[in-house]
Amino acid sequence: MRSRTIQRRIGDALTYLVFLATLVFFGGPLLWVLSLSIRTSQEVYITSLRLIPETPTLENYAEVLYTAQFSVFLLNSLKLSVAGSLGAMVIAAPAAYAFSRLQFRGNSTLLLGVLALQMISPLVVIIPLYRYYARLNLLDSHFSAAMVYIAILVPLATWMLKGFFDGIPPALDEAAMVDGCTRFGAFRRIVLPLILPGLTSAFVLTAILAWGEFIVPYILLSEPSLLPISIGILNFQGNYAETSTNVLAAGGILAMLPAIATFVILQRFIVRALTSGAIKG
Q1: Nearest to 161 by CA among 211, 210, 200, 103
Q2: Are 50 and 36 in contact (CB under 8 A)?
Q3: pLDDT-wise least confident of 10-19, 25-34, 185-194, 243-252
Q4: Rounded to whole angstroms, how far apart are CA atoms 281 and 271?
Q5: Residue 153 and residue 159: Cα distance in Å, rounded?
Q6: Chain Cα centroid distance, residue 223
Q7: Closest Cα partner for 121 from 151, 162, 91, 163?
Q8: What are the tens digits of pLDDT across the range 56-81?
Q9: What is the largest CA-CA distance in the chain?
Q10: pLDDT given at position 1
Q11: The domain 68-232 belongs to what CATH superfamily?
């Protein structure tokens, strides 16, 4: 009995060590960027490893907020994130419903294929897409970028929503069809409203992923008025040569805040919705 207690404590200690190492690995760079964002130009190039600067300042944040096109970049990111997530929901919801309800040969294999698409980096297809959009005169357009966002987000959204559809008893669909509904009518009127928490959580998570997308807008968009915040902050490096590092760090922190705040505010709702779908499935 005592040996089991010791083993459990050792296991707990190792778990906490792994969590601590993960926190340092991912949180360390973020803290360093935060430190750079509140430094003066003279303190940026100090060789000593000092996390808290001697003279902290918020002038870098003021410069980003008031002298750059920061609000335009934020609005563009919001447009692309919402458009990409909404488009992904429109395509992924019927696809997930079909995978959940329709039994056909190769169902599981095709579903794994959808997941495999999520593993393909945008770098693999972005150059052919660039040439394709160039021939169609669709470069420098939020529409073309949003279409690629949707294609990237659909596999993940399909997998998430399938778990929620699996949690809805098929008897509800059958009862609706007995009463005269078509398959699509049962999907739209009966099943879809029941997975609203799942749709919301999938929308939020895909929107957060779209918010940080870099490769697609970097290749397809070049007009400053169309750039999202993930690309727009790079302008701070070129426009403020003397103070580029600390201004760029401040822009990066401000760019991350909306996504972090959204996740923190909706974290309990998202986790509860995902856990509910997983248990029911």
Answers
A1: 200
A2: no
A3: 243-252
A4: 15
A5: 10
A6: 23
A7: 151
A8: 888 888 888 886 688 889 999 999 99
A9: 75
A10: 58
A11: MetI-like (1.10.3720.10)
Question: If you average pLDDT over residues 24-47, what whole number do you get?
Answer: 81
Residue 4, pLDDT score:
72
Closest CA to 51 of 33, 63, 68: 33
Q: What are the residue boundaries of the structural domains of the chain, listed by start?
A: 68-232
Is residue 281's pLDDT more than 50?
no
Q: Check pLDDT > 70 for residue 239.
A: no
Asked if 230 and 74 count as a contact pair (C-beta separation under 8 A), the reply is no
Round to whole Å and give the CA distance between 29 and 174.
53
Q: How many CA atoms lie within 13 A of 77 on its CB side?
A: 26
| Alpha-carbon 191 to chain mean position | 26
Q: Could you write out the three-class secondary structure of the chain?
A: CHHHHHHHHHHHHHHHHHHHHHHHHHHHHHHHHHHHHCCCHHHHCCCCCCCCCCCCCCHHHHHHHHHCCHHHHHHHHHHHHHHHHHHHHHHHHHHHHHHHHCCCCCHHHHHHHHHHHHCCCHHHHHHHHHHHHHHCCCCCCHHHHHHHHHHHHHHHHHHHHHHHHHCCCHHHHHHHHHCCCCHHHHHHHHHHHHCHHHHHHHHHHHHHHHHCCCHHHHHHCCCHHHCCHHHHCHHHHHHCCCCHHHHHHHHHHHHHHHHHHHHHHHHHHHHHHHHHHHHHC
Mean predicted confidence (pLDDT) in 219-243: 77
